[in-house]
From TrEMBL:
Record's protein name: L-arabinose isomerase
GO terms of biological process kind: L-arabinose catabolic process to D-xylulose 5-phosphate
Database matches in NCBIfam families: PRK02929.1
Organism of origin: Candidatus Fusicatenibacter merdavium
InterPro entries named among the record's database cross-references: Ara_Isoase_C, AraA_central, AraA_N, AraA_N_sf, Fuc/Ara_isomerase_C, Fucose_isomerase_N/cen_sf, Lara_isomerase
Gene: araA
Key word Chloroplast present: no
Known pathway: Carbohydrate degradation; L-arabinose degradation via L-ribulose; D-xylulose 5-phosphate from L-arabinose (bacterial route): step 1/3
Length: 498
């Protein structure tokens, strides 16, 4: 995986000196116990770093500015153990620029009914202090995540882990650079967009290169490097020649090996993490990149077909967000192709003409070499497979002219009813929630594209949190969606985000 930094998250506990040094010693001890437990729970994907108790305006401001300048700090977790006067946090919050989590918890799980006294009450005031702190963050209109619950509970720890994933996505968004090879497909609307506004909102750099500039890197790949990668292909994947001459088949596969190596060298040298291609402008390339792009996606690069730079950046972003997830099931570029409308068996066949990431594959992965009417080049080799079953999300980032909207659909991936022996592409079959009819209608009302960034490993909540941090609209299509309410939500959002 072409991964992000080894991030950490700072744990900052708020208090004040009203109750004396002994109380402050307990506050520090308790917060250290919580941090140690979070780090040892095995659920969080990143380390939590304990920081000394924050009790003054100056210390709060200093700590937040140190967090800003620490490249390994991806966010701050705040908790008010006792009462912390909220005005003390104003300057620090004003100058803080990274993701913020307000963990609303308390050290003790249960009220100690037999022994509770005023000393205990004064020391353990999270229900009081967190509200004071929450008020000032709301008044200052600062975007943050609030998670309430007991710190030892697995459900709370999982929510913290999910927020960490989103926070890394927020941090890494400003480091995404997309390489556009050629331009968007002619007359296609959804692959267009305002690249300047995307850089302002998300931090993405989107640059264009003539196709023959990257083709020169492919041309310069040595035959020895190509042969070695072809050997890797043949050892890793099933080879389905399907009647083609084996030597001729291998030559087609070798073309993709050269493209993979050449493209990766180009992207590494020029520091790009996502790429788009277009079948209408291939220059001196012998094949439309297929297997090569699939392999690059598996390594962590983003991709969008036909010049779709928004989806390429989102695929890269979502791969970064899932990089630390245990037992990840995969993230990929995807495209809506055709429906099954048989009652009780409704769903969408997802695929692309070549480029679906093998990280989402279930079972054997094969190499096929088949004609492709688009591109006017020789038959491209590609990886063919079916995808895993399970829950996922499909996302579409669209440009509405005056603003961006992120559309998120919960989907349930299933196995197709029958094999498709004549379809030489990787596929996924899913049912949009709440069902195909409502899901598809809502998607179209929202203006969703036919390209998506899809993942088994992220949730709608995580992507909504990312959108909120970016200051853009997000709409979710899920099991609770009905068209009347959804259309009203779009109308209300159009007023809020105008």
């Amino acid at each position: 995986m072409k991964a992000a930094k080894k991030y950490q998250f700072w744990f900052c506990t708020g208090s004040q000196d009203l109750y004396g040094d002994e109380c402050l010693a307990h506050v520090a001890e308790h917060s250290q116990i919580i941090v140690n437990a979070l780090n040892q729970c095995g659920i969080l994907p990143y380390e939590v770093v304990w920081k000394p108790t924050l009790i003054t305006n100056e210390l709060i401001r200093k700590t937040f500015n140190e967090a800003n300048s620490d490249e390994n700090c991806a966010g701050v977790i705040t908790w008010m153990h006792t009462f912390s006067p909220a005005k003390s946090w104003i300057l620090g919050l004003q100058e803080y620029r990274k993701p913020l989590l307000h963990l609303h918890t308390q050290f003790n799980r249960e009220i100690p009914y037999d022994t509770i006294d005023m000393d205990f009450m004064n020391e353990n005031q999270s229900a009081h202090g967190d509200r004071e702190y929450g008020h000032i963050v709301t008044r200052m209109n600062i975007e943050r995540k609030v998670i309430m619950g007991f710190w030892e509970d697995e459900a709370v720890q999982k929510r913290i882990a999910d927020w960490m994933t989103t926070a890394v996505g927020i941090m890494e968004s400003s480091h995404i650079r997309v390489c556009r090879i050629a331009d968007n497909m002619r007359n296609v609307a959804v692959t267009e967009g305002d690249k300047v506004e995307a850089q302002i909102k998300f931090g993405w750099e989107v640059d264009a290169y003539p196709v023959n500039e990257i083709a020169e890197y492919v041309k310069d790949v040595s035959q020895g490097d190509i042969d070695a990668l072809v050997e890797e292909y043949y050892s890793r994947y099933q080879i389905l020649t399907e009647g083609r001459d084996p030597e001729e088949f291998r030559r087609h596969v070798a073309v993709q090996a050269g493209i993979e190596i050449g493209f990766e060298r180009f992207l590494e040298e020029k520091n790009y993490q996502a790429i788009v291609t277009h079948f209408g402008d291939l220059g001196s390339l012998k094949q439309l990149p297929g297997l090569a792009i699939q392999r690059l996606m598996e390594k962590g690069y983003g991709f969008g077909g036909e010049g779709d730079w928004k989806t390429a950046a989102m695929v890269r972003l979502m791969k970064l967000m899932t990089a630390g997830k245990k037992d990840a099931k995969g993230t990929s570029f995807m495209e809506d192709y055709t429906y099954n409308l048989v009652p009780g068996k409704e769903g969408v066949l997802e695929a692309h003409m070549l480029e679906v990431c093998p990280s989402i594959a279930d079972g054997p992965i094969s190499i096929k070499c088949q004609p492709l009417s688009m591109g006017d080049r020789e038959d491209p080799a590609r990886l063919v497979f079916t995808s895993k079953e399970g829950h996922g999300i499909a996302t579409s980032l669209i440009d509405l002219g005056t603003r961006f909207r992120l559309i998120i659909n919960d989907v349930d991936c299933k196995k197709v009813e029958k094999p498709m022996p004549k379809l030489p592409v990787a596929t996924n079959f899913w049912v949009p929630q709440p069902n195909l009819q409502v899901g598809a209608e809502a998607w179209i009302y929202a203006g969703g594209a036919h390209h998506t960034a899809f993942s088994y490993d992220l949730t709608a909540e995580q992507m909504c949190d990312w959108a909120a941090a970016m200051g853009i609209e997000a709409v979710v299509i899920d099991k609770d969606t009905n068209i009347r309410n959804f259309r009203n939500e779009l109308r209300w959002n159009s007023m809020y985000y105008r």
